[in-house]
User: What shape does this take?
Amino acid sequence: MHQSAFDPNGPATNSKNLFGLPYRVSDADLIVIPVPWEVTTSYGSGTSDAPENILQSSLQVDLHDMDIPEAWKSRIALDNFPVDIYERGQQFNQKARVIAESPDVKGDIEAINNACEEMVKWVYDRSSQLLSEGKRVCTLGGDHSTCLGLIQALGNFNESFSILQIDAHADLRKSYCGFNYSHASVMHHALNVSQVNKLVQVGIRDLCEEEANRIQANAKIITYFDSAYRERLYRGDTWGNIVKEIVSTLGPHVYVSFDVDGFNPALCPNTGTPVPGGLEFQEAIYLLKKVAESREIIGFDISETGNGSIDGNVSARLLYKLANITLHGIKNPARKGHSLYTGAGQPVKPH
Assistant: This one.
């Protein structure tokens, strides 16, 4: 369907693209890579179905965005569904779950680690290809490890950038249950990308001693624990003040990693590892908008969405907002003519 024939006020008729938008990968500005992989999940399951769940839920999202005029003209396209990634993930998921539940069982760990490394490499290669074409890129997991290849690829296209991680968990373990590329280790690996200058975590409320010690010892990590900023709010501080402080810690270029268990679990109850507490939807949107007022969002991921209808509904709306502000920013009256999107351009160093 050509853009001129698209009716943004009518029901979605293009069921193969997110939000029913009339764009293809070839002519889109932002490409959403579905990564239906959940091999190392250690509790709930179903995140490998998230990309399809979010696609179907997105068809019910109204396209008017009060912050961005004619947001439906944002050229967003869903990349091809990687059937081989899905099938390979299903092949290893049950084996990994047996190992996670029975620590004495060590068989297949090497094969699982190799498969996870291959998934990361696949995401890296596909992201790199799209970035070299001037696209903005995000990943749609799947468990949280699915975004690592994109973060690594962005290191080749940016001299430095910060990561804003919204999450219930710190994800700083070197490995978990013997799995080197566990969803619980994604930020450990992300910090090994030399271009990452800061990791700012928001919503953290579940972590191990190893992770707590690492946060204390590493000046690149700034963590806003859910309990700490809730206490500030209870004493009379405002979310606006806290968000202003969070944004001030970020560099000019920001990657947003959004694990939906960072939300209040009532919003995404079927996420892999729900934890009491967390952000309300509009609290998260306010934070993201304030980031986009003064920073350039260079890419993002939405990870750990479950297979329930409410999970898909919430994640689809989060995706639409994040995609729009990534492409357009949020106009700040103090910054006339402000437009953040300039295209990814060419690598800043050899591949």
Notes: The first strand starts at residue 30 and ends at 35.
